[in-house]
Amino acid sequence: MKTKSHIIIVSNRLPLILKQTDDGKIEVGKGAGGLVTAMAPVLQNRNGTWIGWPGYVQETDIDDNMLPALQSAASGYSVKPVMLNSEELKNYYEGFSNSIIWPLFHDFTDKCIFLSEYWESYQKVNKKFALIVCQNADDQDFIWVHDYQLILVGAELRKMHKRNRIGFFLHIPFPPIDTFARCPWRFELLSAMLEYNLLGFHTIQDKRNFIGCLKKIIQDVQIDAKAELDETVSEVRLGNRVVRIGVFPISIDYNEFFLKAWDSNVYKRAKEMRSNAPDTKILLGVDRLDYTKGIPEKLKAFQMFLTLFPNFHKKAHFIQLVAPSRREITAYADLKLKIEQLVGEINGIFGTDDWLPVQYMFRTLDRNELISLYRTCEIAFITPLKDGMNLIAKEYCACNIDEKGVLILSEFAGAAQQFYQDAILVNPHDIEGMAKAIHRAFNMPLEERNQRMRNLREIVKNKDVFWWLNSFLKAAIEKDLSSFPQADEYSPFKPV
Ligand code: ADQ
After folding, report:
1. Taking the complete model, does pTM exceed 0.90, yes or no?
2. What CA–CA distance (Å, rounded) separates 475 from 480?
3. Could you read off the pLDDT of 225-239 as tens digits, one per residue?
4. What distance in Å separates the CA atoms of residue 36 and residue 67, rounded to the nearest whole number?
5. Is 36 a pocket residue for ligand 1 (Cβ < 6 Å)?
6. What domains does the chain contain, in order, with CATH numbers?
7. From the CB of 395, is ligand 1 less than 6 Å away?
8. Who is most buried in 41, 188, 209, 231, counting CB within 10 A?
9. Which of 12, 329, 396 has the alpha carbon at shortest distance from 170?
10. With a 6 A CB cut-off, is 253 part of the ligand 1 pocket?
C-alpha cells in the first residue's frame, strides 16, 4: 500500500518503446523527443508512476507477458501502458492530435484536417487514458497530465469523481484567438482545460493567448486584469472553481549534459570529428522531422550564405541532423523529400571533389554522439518557424564547455524569450537575414562569443529541468498565492 503522495505522470508516449521482433521476441527501447528528454530525469528513482502508450499498436489490451520487460527498463518508477489499436492510431494520434491540434497550435492552419471522426476518437482515447489513471491513483496523488494529445483527461477524471489535484502542462505553443477560433471544438477544448487545478505554459505569450481565448469563448469566466501581464502564476475563476495559470519555461538536466561533455570518450570523438574537417567551421542543425522546425528555410539560408559570401567556400560546412518522426503522415513524408532535394541541390551547385557543403543525416543519434557534435560545432543553427521551447538550443549551450560557440536562434522559439540578449535572433522567414546571421556568427570575435555563451549557459544552469519541476509543483500545491515566491526564488529540486 502507498503511504504518501506520489506523482503520476500521464503522457501520450512512455519514455520506453515496445517492439516485437520478427521471431516474436519483445524488445524495449528508449523513447526520444522533447517531452521524454525533459521528463525522464524527473521521475527517476522517485517511486512515481508513468502512464502512456509504449509506441506499439495492438488491437487488444497489452499482453501480460510484455509487462516485465517494460517494467524492468524503467528506473525507480512504475509503468502503466495504455495500448492503442490501429483505428485509434489513425484517428486520435495521426488525426486529431497531429492533423488538427499540432498544426493549429503552431499556426499552420492550412495543414489542419477538421474531421469529426478524429474528434470522436480523441474523446474516446482520452477517456481510456483517464480510466487507467483512475485505476492507479490514490486520493492524495498528484496527477500531472502532459501535452496536446491529452487535453481532455482532466475533465474525464472529474466525471469519474476524482478530486485529486491535477495539473496540465502544454509542451507546444498556445495560439492566438484568431487561429484557435477556427477549431470546431474550441469550446469543448477550453472548457476541459478549466477542469485542471493548474495549467502550465512555456512563455508569457502562450499564457496571454490562452487568456485571450478564454475571454472570447467562455462566457462566465472571471479573469483578473493583471493576469495577462503576470509572468508567474495567476488565477481565473469559473463559478466556485479556481484555475491557476502559470509560465514555466521547460529545460534540460544541465548537469547531465555538462558532465557528459567533459567525458573523455566524448572529447576523443569531438576531436576526431574536428580532424575530419580541419580548416572549416561547422554549422550544426538538429531537428525532429517536422514542418514547424523550418529545415528547408535554413537550407535555403545556407545556400544564400554561400552565394553572398564566396570567400567561405571550402571553409564552411553545414551538418544537418534530422530525427525520423511521424512519417506515416503525408506532410512529413513530403517534407523529407523536400529536404533531400535541397541538400542535393546545394551540394550539386557548390560541392567540389574535396568539399561537401552540407552533410545530411536522417537518424536518431545516441546521446554521447550528439553531445560530441555539440562540442565540435562552432555554431548551432536553430530556426523553427514556431516552437514551444526547443531543448536543442539548451543542450548545445550546456555542452559548449569551452564557451566559444554561437547560437543562432529563431525569434519564434519559446527559448528566444530567455535567450534574446545573447543568441543571434533571426526571423526564419527572412532567408537573406539568416544568411547574414551565419556570416556574423562566423566572424564574431572570440571575446564576444565567450561573453554571450557564458551568459546563455548561466540561464540554462540556473533554470534547469529541476527548477522547472519545482516551480510547477509549488504552483500546484501552494495554498495561498499571495505568499507565492517569484519563480527565481525556488531552490533547485535535484535528483535523489
Ligand atoms: P520536440 O518538438 O520533440 O518537443 P525539442 O524541444 O527540440 O522538440 O526536443 C527534441 C529532443 O530530441 C531533444 O532532446 C534532442 O536532443 C532530441 N533529438 C532531436 N533530434 C535528434 C537526433 N537526430 N538524434 C538524437 N536526438 C535528437 C516538444 C516541443 C518543444 C519543447 C519540447 C519540451 O515541440 O517545443 O521544447 O516538447 O517541452
Report:
1. yes
2. 10
3. 788 777 778 999 998
4. 20
5. no
6. 7-250+468-487 (3.40.50.2000), 254-462 (3.40.50.2000)
7. yes
8. 209
9. 12
10. no
